[in-house]
Amino acid sequence: MVDRKVVKARGLPWSATADEVVQFFSACTITGGASGVHFTTNREGRPSGECFVEMGTEEDVTEALKKDHCNMGKRYVEVFECSVKDMEFAIGGGGREGGPAGMGEEWG
After folding, report:
1. Over the stretch 46-95, which tens digit does the pLDDT of each residue have?
2. d(Cα 91, Cα 94) in Å, to the nearest integer?
3. High-pLDDT (> 90) share of the chain, %
4. In the prediction, which pLDDT does 93 show?
5. What is the pTM of this model?
6. Are strands 70-72 and 47-55 parallel, antiparallel or unpaired?
7. Helical residues (DSSP H) of 4-73, grouped into ranges
8. In whole angstroms, what is the distance from residue 34 CA to residue 54 CA?
């Protein structure tokens, strides 16, 4: 199995597209291009301002981390290295019931 590399970007404009994220990380190779960008949503299904980006190599991760606190539009974006497991948990739940944004809610 190939060791997958992932970064998390937080603080994105809510209107950000996968192509804009690819452009933001233009110095990096993103696995699958725009399809390697995975946005998260809140429990209402709206953009959360966060995404996970699958990087090609460890060097791409290092390059992506240099974008920490750089601006995308008028917003500064925080960039963190994270695990594939964290990404899969966040996008698998999609911020809906049973996912990260749904945790701690009372069951009816």
Report:
1. 999 999 999 999 999 999 999 999 999 999 999 999 999 999 999 885 44
2. 5
3. 78
4. 57
5. 0.82
6. unpaired
7. 18-24, 58-65
8. 10
| Distance from C-alpha of 35 to C-alpha of 23, rounded to nearest angstrom | 13
Residue that has been written with the tokens 């690819």 in this structure: 22
Helices (H), 13-53: 18-24
DSSP-H helix ranges across the chain: 18-24, 58-65, 84-93
Task: From 38, 77, 76, 78, select the one nearest 55 (Cα to Cα).
Answer: 38
**Both tokens assigned to 63:** 């390059």
Both tokens of 41, joined, read 């949503």
Read off the pLDDT of each residue in 32-40 and give the average, rounded to a whole number: 97
